[in-house]
Amino acid sequence: MDVEEFRKYGKEVIDYICQYGTNIEERDVAPTLDPGYLKKLLPADAPQSPEPFKDVLEDFEQKIMPGVVHWNHPKFFAYFPSGNSFPSVLGDMLSSAIGSIGFSWASCPAAAELETIVMNWYAKALGLPKAFVSDAPGSTGGGALQGSASECVLVSLITARARAISELKGQTSVHDSVFLPSLIAYASREAHSSVEKATKMALVKLRIIDADEHGRMRVDLLRQAIQNDVNAGLTPFFVVATVGTTGGCAFDDITEIGKVCREVSSIWLHVDGAYAGNSFILPEMRVFSAGLEYADSFNTNPNKLLLTNFDASALWVRDVMNLKSALNVNPLYLRHEHLTGVDYRHYGIPLSRRFRALKLWFVFRTYGIRGLQEYIRNHMALAKKFEMLVRKDERFEVRNDVHLGLVCFRMRTGDEPNHMLLAQINHSGKMHMTPAKFNGRYVIRFCVTYEHASEKDILDAWTQIKCFAEEILRDHQLESSSVPTTPEGSERTSSEPVAPVAGKPPIKKRLTRTKSLRFSFTRSISREQYQSQSEHLMDGCTPILVVDPKTLQENFQKAADDNDRNNSNGNVKLKDISDVDTDEASN
């Protein structure tokens, strides 16, 4: 492709992107295809000869787009937002065109210096402690853009591990690996699974701390766990607090967690704010950032709630020397004479780094702080609108505290009807949502994600949700004990009739059991498998695990058959199960 062809097709691609964004509502939010669909459409081997680029674009629309989930669709309410604004896309295009590999200041001075400036802008906009701002008087801290929050957690944990081992090692010549078995990290049960993955990669233990009814880490249990581990000869070295958990957007109490961490000098406190950390750009949300002065590191993703397309995750540390000493590898071929320039290869895992700061710079300049604030406040207002609609309908309940853009709701029935509801929603292709386990109950996550979301989008979604629910509720009884606490003025009395659903109801499609599980993001497994998974953290994208009722019934029948064979005195009881256990199991 020469420059004139690039100019021609580049304009066509820009036109396609504009048309895609303008007409996106005409597409289904998510495909209902089966795995392997694309393999049937594409050849097994790459072409030997060049093909016309117009054919590539045609195949993109006809073969690739049918399998795309449209994360920037007005009816996409799953996961968290995927920031994808036009200024960000243009910044990324220029970054790709320049093609710099910014591992050091010398490799691209503009990339290194713009990243420093933008990270300081960002920290100040969020109201972070001055210790995280590299140009603040007396500061030893600073920030860097990573690829994802998972990278931020891993980098912070590796840095904390290096610091803890250095303190344990002292002046001895013992190898670092000798100290690994004594190191232990802590995270809430509501923390992201990237914490668990990081501890596995770093070969250290993880202690999972239970959360309270609001999804917040229980600080009393954290303190007790740390004390127990110290008494057992272990070294607590890393604690993760979360602001905006994946399951229910809960905010851990950073101040109280920070006080506990300060009691043990070896502990590094990391605060994960992948989604909700960006909300600190709003002064009214900074009540949840109280306590960040205790943190050694903090991360948030502008690609989630700051209109910057993936990949972009911001990590700040209180002392960059801890980071650089843990990750510094400086071979001769990478050295240069500009000692005052920042080499960001020492701030993360990869050597090669994209010019990520450019797209974030474009976003800050194009929207301004006020524009970004308006965008987030709109998401918050629409989430509150949806919460109000749910709470006014006695058949539904809201299970989380709605502070930002996420509402976790469910029908006041058992879990299985809610599986069915989500499966119907997703199989329709007209909306897309995901589940979570919150306070032990299966909930449907409704997250406002679209940049230009409106009240109409929320009202339309609620109308369709009720249409799907009405058919399911004909065969299932409500749980009266599950009535949620409603804000003043939003109660509905049991005698008040439910208003009929207006508008054309969605098309009901009968789902097989397999498709019902697939579209409700649920997986049936044996009780043994279920119990083995109970000590793992969730990530918000893997299926919710449930015990297969068929397997449960087969196991029960097998136990009964074994009991019949092993008891010949006529006094039949299930082996190894007391009467109380049997009664509880039947309930």
UniProtKB/TrEMBL annotation:
<dbReference type="InterPro" id="IPR002129">
    <property type="entry name" value="PyrdxlP-dep_de-COase"/>
</dbReference>
<dbReference type="InterPro" id="IPR021115">
    <property type="entry name" value="Pyridoxal-P_BS"/>
</dbReference>
<dbReference type="InterPro" id="IPR010977">
    <property type="entry name" value="Aromatic_deC"/>
</dbReference>
<dbReference type="InterPro" id="IPR015421">
    <property type="entry name" value="PyrdxlP-dep_Trfase_major"/>
</dbReference>
<dbReference type="InterPro" id="IPR015424">
    <property type="entry name" value="PyrdxlP-dep_Trfase"/>
</dbReference>
<feature type="modified residue" description="N6-(pyridoxal phosphate)lysine">
    <location>
        <position position="304"/>
    </location>
</feature>
<keyword id="KW-0663">Pyridoxal phosphate</keyword>
<dbReference type="GO" id="GO:0019752">
    <property type="term" value="P:carboxylic acid metabolic process"/>
</dbReference>
<feature type="compositionally biased region" description="Polar residues">
    <location>
        <begin position="479"/>
        <end position="488"/>
    </location>
</feature>
<dbReference type="Pfam" id="PF00282">
    <property type="entry name" value="Pyridoxal_deC"/>
</dbReference>
<dbReference type="InterPro" id="IPR015422">
    <property type="entry name" value="PyrdxlP-dep_Trfase_small"/>
</dbReference>
<keyword id="KW-0456">Lyase</keyword>
<dbReference type="GO" id="GO:0016831">
    <property type="term" value="F:carboxy-lyase activity"/>
</dbReference>
<protein>
    <submittedName>
        <fullName>Aromatic-L-amino-acid decarboxylase</fullName>
    </submittedName>
</protein>
<feature type="region of interest" description="Disordered">
    <location>
        <begin position="478"/>
        <end position="509"/>
    </location>
</feature>
<dbReference type="GO" id="GO:0006520">
    <property type="term" value="P:amino acid metabolic process"/>
</dbReference>
<dbReference type="GO" id="GO:0005737">
    <property type="term" value="C:cytoplasm"/>
</dbReference>
<dbReference type="GO" id="GO:0030170">
    <property type="term" value="F:pyridoxal phosphate binding"/>
</dbReference>
<comment type="similarity">
    <text>Belongs to the group II decarboxylase family.</text>
</comment>
<feature type="region of interest" description="Disordered">
    <location>
        <begin position="555"/>
        <end position="587"/>
    </location>
</feature>
